[in-house]
């Protein structure tokens, strides 16, 4: 019994040491302002060179576990795992998570391949991510966000030994948005501000590649309608919703104790301006936030107003409609916007 315990402790220490060496190697590497996909590929190359992590490039489109390259699982000592794959269905992703023992950093590049599905994924896949208790899913908008998430995952899973696995959806659209230390920590919690302008009329939230359309919508709102918008990047709507739901449950069970807060409410506190949250996934992913936002809330995703992710024009129209519903602008401006941008429901 004593010998077995010593082996277990040795393996844990070895894993943590390997993870720290990975973090050190990545921290000393010169980061380039690139897309999330190219940033993670560069990080994978650094990890391969360090020989302290398993880096696997899997391209199987089968849901059968035997077709996933799982030779790393035969090793007796756990190492940090970065798995680059192209799973487009929940069945494939479930098989992959099972064969990796629901451990590791799973990075999906399916968004960059031709597909009739939003973000290249069948609708079941984002729902599976949102409901899997051991999965922490992210949809980074920039290479800086992706880099911060991978480093945090290495520390959380392998240095601190926390259970579960991380998932990153990777696109290849370049973004040069730098992150301060404060923004980096906020991004890991689910959201951070891209502009801290005040006052503002509406708040726009975006995730992943859809954030680019949100940025353009903010400009159109100001140029065409004299509406000021506060802009937020939300790498993980699911993490925001989970923390908010957990805080709400704790407060319900402990009514005599001080209330617990959550990152979502902290970020949106102090204003009644409408919140428009946008994702390239189906709307259900942002619907998770609705119960925890005190202001008027509009969720926009693939299928909300058009088959693909909402365009900048639909985001503008939705923001104007929210303001009209609040009585802050005339409803005729909504009609004028729909005519100006020639938008129609598909």
Overview features:
single chain; 346 residues; alpha/beta; Rossmann fold; 2 domains; five-stranded parallel beta sheet; five-stranded mixed beta sheet; 12 helices; 10 strands; 44% helix; globular; disordered N terminus
Characterize the structure shown.
This protein has helices at residues 2-28, 36-50, 90-99, 124-131, 143-159, 181-189, 210-225, 237-253, 263-268, 284-287, 312-325, 332-341, and strands spanning 54-57, 81-85, 104-108, 135-138, 165-169, 192-193, 202-206, 229-233, 275-282, 297-302. The radius of gyration is 21 Å and the shape is globular. The protein starts with a helix and ends in a 5-residue tail after the last helix. It has a five-stranded parallel β-sheet, with helices on both faces. It has a five-stranded mixed β-sheet with strand order 6-8-7-9-10. 44% of the residues lie in helices and 14% in strands. It has twelve helices and ten strands. The protein is of the alpha/beta class and 346 residues long. 46% of the residues are buried. Helix 2 crosses helix 5 (143-159). The protein has two domains: 2-169, 3-Layer(aba) Sandwich (Rossmann fold); 185-341, Rossmann fold (3-Layer(aba) Sandwich).
What is this structure's SSE topology?
Blueprint: H1 2-28, H2 36-50, E1 54-57, E2 81-85, H3 90-99, E3 104-108, H4 124-131, E4 135-138, H5 143-159, E5 165-169, H6 181-189, E6 192-193, E7 202-206, H7 210-225, E8 229-233, H8 237-253, H9 263-268, E9 275-282, H10 284-287, E10 297-302, H11 312-325, H12 332-341
Parallel strand pairs: 1-2, 2-3, 3-5, 4-5, 7-8, 7-9, 9-10
Antiparallel strand pairs: 6-8
Keywords: Pyruvate, Signal
Organism: Pseudomonas extremorientalis
Signal peptide: 1-18
């Amino acid at each position: 019994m004593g010998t077995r315990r010593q082996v277990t402790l040795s393996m844990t220490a070895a894993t943590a040491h390997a993870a720290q060496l990975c973090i050190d190697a990545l921290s000393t590497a010169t980061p380039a302002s690139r897309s999330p996909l190219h940033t993670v590929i560069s990080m994978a190359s650094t990890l391969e060179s360090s020989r302290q992590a398993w880096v696997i490039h899997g391209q199987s489109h089968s849901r059968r576990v035997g077709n996933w390259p799982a030779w790393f699982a035969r090793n007796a000592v756990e190492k940090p795992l970065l798995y680059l794959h192209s799973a487009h269905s929940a069945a494939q992703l479930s098989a992959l998570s099972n064969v990796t023992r629901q451990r590791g950093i799973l990075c999906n590049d399916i968004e960059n391949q031709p597909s009739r599905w939003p973000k290249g994924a069948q609708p079941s896949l984002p729902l599976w991510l949102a409901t899997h208790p051991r999965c922490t899913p992210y949809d980074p908008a920039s290479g800086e966000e992706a880099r911060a998430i991978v480093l945090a995952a290495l520390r959380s899973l392998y240095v601190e030994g926390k259970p579960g696995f991380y998932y990153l959806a990777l696109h290849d659209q370049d973004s040069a948005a730098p992150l301060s230390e404060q923004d980096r920590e906020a991004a890991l919690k689910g959201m951070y501000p891209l502009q801290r302008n005040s006052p503002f009329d509406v708040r726009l939230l975006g995730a992943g590649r859809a954030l680019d359309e949100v940025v353009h919508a903010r400009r159109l709102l100001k140029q065409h309608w004299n509406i000021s918008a506060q802009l937020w990047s939300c790498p993980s709507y699911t993490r925001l919703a989970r923390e908010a739901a957990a805080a709400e449950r704790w407060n319900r069970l402990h009514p005599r104790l001080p209330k617990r807060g959550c990152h979502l409410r902290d970020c949106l506190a102090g204003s009644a301006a409408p919140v428009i949250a946008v994702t390239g996934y189906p709307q259900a992913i942002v619907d998770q936030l609705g119960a925890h936002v005190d202001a008027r809330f509009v969720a926009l995703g693939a299928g909300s107003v058009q088959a693909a992710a909402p365009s900048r024009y639909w985001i503008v129209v939705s923001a104007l409609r929210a303001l009209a519903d609040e009585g802050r602008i005339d409803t005729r401006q909504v009609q004028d916007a729909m005519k100006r941008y020639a938008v129609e429901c598909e």
